[in-house]
């Protein structure tokens, strides 16, 4: 049994498709799970009832934690540590391996320009401190041989299953309306992105490779050092090619002070200013170790953007 906790999210969806190539025993765990493959087993989970996690994990060979919680510091502080502890405890009791899909918030600000698996952990944000706690919980459990575990890290996501990405929130919707794309910080800085189908494939590979456990892996991520301006240019051209946009309309940069002001009126924006450092400097995510070990390279940005834009044309 291969179990995905957070089966309806950006990585959970492509992961389920990849796991279906390896096993017909897949359990999808989320608030309201829906079948992604014909033989999927569904398990509705109430995250406020941690006692359900043991049952969700029961009988699993590998448990993939791809779940996300509301982008709110108080929720992260309240939910994440006890939730992950419960998953670790359940995996230990069920003798299940665990693969945890993580982000880069725990890395030191000085490391963002070139992130590697061994980059220093010194989070400059309060959300980063939460991610550091999660990192330590997993590595401590693995170090004490309570469980076998992998931390699979990714850069910012893009792709056909990323409703909360900057492209899905501030770029594509604006371009569809004939408005300028919005971007944060310095748009001429390098910014790496992880294509969600690549993440799903790579996570499935890691979870089913015996000697990949008890360490951090960086998932395959765009090797080319594209700037945010260049990313938006690729998206604009592809949308023009598909007839979704008539002409280039440019980019509106959003400085930190405006984000702080918007936070007074828009709760979600209130949470963002502390992460602004990631958009004011180069943000380069190296994944050479994964490529050397598994021979998989990230999808070319032009192809990734093509598939992301194609998803915009599909009916909901």
Descriptive overview:
- There is one protein chain.
- The chain has 316 residues and is α/β, with parallel strands linked by helices.
- The chain has a domain of 181 residues: 3-Layer(aba) Sandwich (Rossmann fold).
- The strands form 3 sheets. It has a 7-stranded parallel β-sheet, with helices on both faces.
- The radius of gyration is 19 Å and the shape is globular.
- The protein starts with a strand and ends with a helix.
The gyration radius over C-alpha positions equals: 19 Å
Helix content range of the residues, please? 25-40%
Spatial separation of the terminal alpha carbons: 30 Å
Count of DSSP E strands?
A: 11
Structural class: alpha/beta
% residues in beta strands: 5-15%
| Full CATH superfamily name of the domain at 2-155 and 195-221 | NAD(P)-binding Rossmann-like Domain
Biggest sheet details: 7 strands, parallel
- Cα shape: globular
Segments where pLDDT lies below 50 for 5+ residues? Answer: none
CATH topology tier name of the domain at 2-155 and 195-221:
Rossmann fold
- Name of the level-1 CATH class of the domain at 2-155 and 195-221: Alpha Beta
**Reading side by side through the largest sheet, how are the strands ordered?**
3-2-1-4-5-6-10
CATH architecture classification name of the domain at 2-155 and 195-221: 3-Layer(aba) Sandwich
**Mean model confidence by pLDDT:** 93
């Amino acid at each position: 049994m291969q179990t995905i906790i957070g089966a309806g999210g950006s990585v959970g969806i492509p992961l389920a498709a990849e796991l279906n190539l390896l096993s017909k025993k897949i359990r999808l765990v989320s608030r309201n799970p829906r079948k992604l493959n014909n033989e999927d087993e569904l398990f509705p989970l109430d995250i406020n009832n941690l006692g359900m996690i043991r049952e969700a994990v029961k009988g699993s060979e590998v448990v993939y934690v791809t779940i996300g919680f509301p982008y709110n510091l108080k929720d992260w502080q309240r939910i994440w540590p006890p939730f992950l502890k419960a998953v670790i405890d359940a995996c230990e009791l069920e003798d299940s391996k665990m693969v945890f899909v993580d982000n880069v918030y725990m890395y030191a600000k000085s490391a963002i320009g070139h992130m590697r698996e061994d980059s220093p952990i010194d989070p400059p944000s309060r959300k980063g401190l939460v991610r550091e706690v999660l990192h330590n919980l997993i590595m401590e459990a693995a170090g004490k041989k309570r469980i076998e575990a992998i931390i699979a890290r990714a850069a910012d996501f893009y792709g056909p299953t990323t409703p909360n990405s900057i492209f899905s929130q501030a770029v594509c919707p604006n371009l569809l309306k004939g408005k300028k794309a919005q971007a944060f910080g310095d748009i001429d800085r390098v910014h790496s992105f992880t294509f969600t189908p690549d993440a799903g494939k790579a996570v499935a590979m890691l979870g089913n490779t015996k000697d990949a456990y008890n360490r951090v892996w960086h998932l395959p991520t765009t090797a080319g050092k594209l700037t945010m301006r260049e990313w938006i240019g690729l998206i604009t051209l592809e949308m023009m090619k598909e007839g979704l946009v008539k002409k280039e309309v440019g980019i509106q940069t959003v400085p930190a002070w405006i984000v702080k002001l918007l936070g007074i009126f828009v709760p979600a924006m209130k949470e963002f200013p502390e992460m602004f450092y990631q958009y004011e400097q180069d943000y380069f995510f190296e994944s050479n170790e994964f490529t050397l070990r598994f021979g998989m390279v990230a999808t070319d940005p032009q192809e990734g953007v093509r598939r992301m834009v194609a998803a915009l044309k599909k009916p909901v």
